[in-house]
Structures are given as structure tokens and as C-alpha cells.
Amino acid sequence: MIEFTVVSSLLLFSSCLLAASRASPAGNVTEYAGSPKVRSTVKARQTTSSKLVFAHFIIGIVSDRTSSSDYDADFQRAQSFGIDAFALDIGTDEFTDTQLGYAYESAYNNGMSVFISFDFAYWNPTTDAALIGQTIAQYASVPGSAFSAVAGAPNVYFAPNFHPGESDLTVLDGAAMGNNYAPQDGVLVTVTEGDQEYQSVLSAAQGYIAPVSPWFSTHYGAEVTYSKNFVFPSDLLWYMRWQEILTLQPPFVEIISWNDFGESHYTGPLSSLHTDDTSSQWVNDMQVPHDAFLSMAQPFIQAYKDGASSPDSYITSDLIVYWYRITSKELDCDATDTTMTAANNASGLYFGAGASAFSSFALSRDGEQVMSATSLKVIQDSCPCGIYNFNSYSGSVPAQTYDVLGPDGLANLMDGLLVACEPTPSLPVTPPATTVATATSSAKAAATYPPV
């Protein structure tokens, strides 16, 4: 019997604003879109009925990419885990068109699909309506799109993050739920309840994009203009949510996210080229890599696409996947944290407010230990870089490739910090020798639905 063991600790989840339209690669658009290879690809995508898995990709932090090849590794890695398309989250940055062109060209070259996700934290639905339409038209006939154009005219698949009870969902092709919610007045609001809300108003002909996210915390203070600071508790959500997806079997699933380091729910590698919006303060050294989450998700993705109710038959080898917070939730960092002062609250989401141990993991079967390892990341009783860090550290046994932030991704680590913190990767290559525990402690995970 093959076992797939999941060990987790403390917290997770995410929210995101998604409005899906359609798109494709830029540069020599007319010649590119008219090629025989492209036309056959478009036709194939228009007639397919298979379920699709997307990953949310933030364009706003990749201005340092200089060619389509800078996207190749992301697309290739995503495909290896069963991801079919990237939802390209765009704002109104001046480099957006350039990066969309690179992304679509790489998607086409790698047999990947992409589509545009307009982020309305930046777009104005009234004053920017014409520009949004122009952007859709610009990319509608270019290959690489998950929702492809009919020859001769844009054929937009409109699946925004409209909310039941607040918008008319009957006029849509589909709808996307942004993600989980923070507890309200001490009551846990689950993703399942969100699913039920959307399913109650969407017809069978409409496509529901169901979100899946491994974690959520963000910690921007006064050092930036986009301050936001909050945490959503969901210790086992990644595992439980994939179980729910196998029951729900929606037409689309969106992993939130691939590279949103700022909200701590990234599943792609730290080395994925990006600039630093100061998220390095809670991301540096926090992955070996986060895509251990994807290793756990892979058999679920395969089961989902086949309509199976369990991932068991898709698990082909032993693997321990673990994640945990690196400090106790009781740790007091008020004196040095960067969010203890007033900050720009345009987002409406800014809520200001020694000894160490390592984690070891083991798998035993029939009284015999099959595998074991000790994590490289210490659980500490001091404040990392002086701040509250609610990001998760994840890994696996056997261990995956060691992964680090590049220079661009570390450039602003010191911004606003009140204590010295080196902007360099610092994980040890090997874990220290373990010692016999002199005391034990236990922690209760946040509530999950269904209970585990």
C-alpha cells in the first residue's frame, strides 16, 4: 500500500479579484494568428470539453523580464503539474503590454494557454471601459488563449468575480469566486459556502471557476502606498479544498496563485523572475520551495480531470508534504513590526495592530521507518526581520530543489524595517543535528470544513 502523508501547521488562504476575458501573444500578430498551426490550435480549443486548471499569475511584478524566454520555465513547470493555463492578472502599468506579448509568445511556444484577468484594484469599470475593450480586442485573435477567438471576430468568454446578490450573473458566460473569507464576528465563513452561493445562481451552461489556495497572509505597512495587513486562518485548507474540488467537479479550477508573493499564496518557485514590492520581508528563505504544495496537488489535479472522487490511484510514490509557520502566534513583535503605525488605507485592508527548534518528519509502515527528514527552517521565538511573519514554510520528504529569491526579488527587503536584516538567502544547506526534546507542546489548528 502506498501512503501519501500530509503534515501541516497553522493557517492559510487568499483572496483575489478576477475578471477573466481572453487573449493571446503579441508581436507580428497578423502573421502569427493566421498560421496553420495557430488556426488548428484555436479550433481544437474551441471544441474541447475537458475540465481545466488555471493558475493566477501577477504581471505587475515582472517588469524585469526582457523576452518571452523569461516565461518558459514558469509555463513548463506549471504544465508538469497538470496546470493548463495562466490567468494573467494585469493592472495599468506601462509595461503591461510588453509583458503580455512575452507571456503569450512563450505560452504558444510551450503549448500552454493564457488569458487576461483584469485586476479592478487598478482598473476603473466606468472610466476605463473603452480601454478594457481595446485590450480584449488587441489580444482576442492571437494564439495561446485558453478561451480562443472565432475566426473573424473576438469571442469573449466573460467570467468576472461578480458576487451573487450584488450583480446580475445571468448575463455572464461564467463567474469566478475570489477566494476564502476572513472570519466574521468569530464565525468561520468557508469556501464551500461560497461555492454554494455561486452554484445557486449559475446555470448548468455557465462556467464556475472554483478557487483553490494554499495560504493567505499579507503584511504591507507604511513603507508602501498599497498598505494592507491581514491574515486568513485555514490550516488544512489546501488539502481540504482539493477534496472538495473532487466532490464539486467544477468545469474550471483556479489555483491562487502562482507568483503572488505579497499575499503568501504563491505555488511557483521563488526564483521565478520578479521585482520586489517588499514582500521579500516575509518570503525570503520561506520555500524549498512552496511548490511542495503543487506536489501534493498533482494527484488531485489528475483525479479532478478524470472525474474521480479520490486521488489514491494517482499516487505513485511515497511523499511527505509539510508546511508550518516559523513562529508561534503568541510571539509579540509590536515593538519592531512595520504595521504598528498609520498607513495608506486606500485598499480598505490595512489593520494595524532566543530559543529555537527544527521540525522533523517521518513516514513509517508496518513498524519500519520508510523515510525521514528535518526541515531547514527553524521555528523561532524571535521576530524574523523584526516583523510578524504569517507566511508558511513548506517542504517535502524526499526534499525538493533548494530555491531562493534572485537579486531583483530581494532589492527592497530593508524598506521600512526597524531592525537590521540582510537581503540575502540564509537557509543552511543541511539541517543541524537533532537533539532529544526536553519538553513537548501542542497546538490546535483553526477550524476546517468539513472537520478533520
Overview of the structural elements:
This is Glycoside hydrolase family 71 protein. Keywords: Signal. GO terms for molecular function: glucan endo-1,3-alpha-glucosidase activity. It holds the Pfam family Glyco_hydro_71. This protein is α/β, with parallel strands linked by helices. It has 2 domains: 272 residues, Alpha-Beta Barrel (TIM Barrel); 92 residues, no CATH class. It contains 10 helices and 17 strands. The strands form 6 sheets. The chain has a 6-stranded parallel beta sheet with strand order 5-4-3-11-8-7, covered by helices on one side. α6 links the parallel β7 and β8. α3 packs across α4. The radius of gyration is 22 Å and the shape is globular. The N terminus and C terminus are likely disordered.
Total of helices: 10
- N- to C-terminal distance: 22 Å
- The whole-number mean of residue pLDDT values reads 79
CATH architecture label of the largest domain: Alpha-Beta Barrel
The radius of gyration computed from the alpha-carbon positions, rounded to a whole number of angstroms, is: 22 Å
Q: Largest sheet, order of strands side by side?
A: 5-4-3-11-8-7
Instruction: Give the structural class.
Output: alpha/beta
Number of strands: 17
Question: Runs with pLDDT <50, length 5+?
Answer: 1-49, 148-153, 348-355, 448-452
The CATH topology of the largest domain is given as TIM Barrel
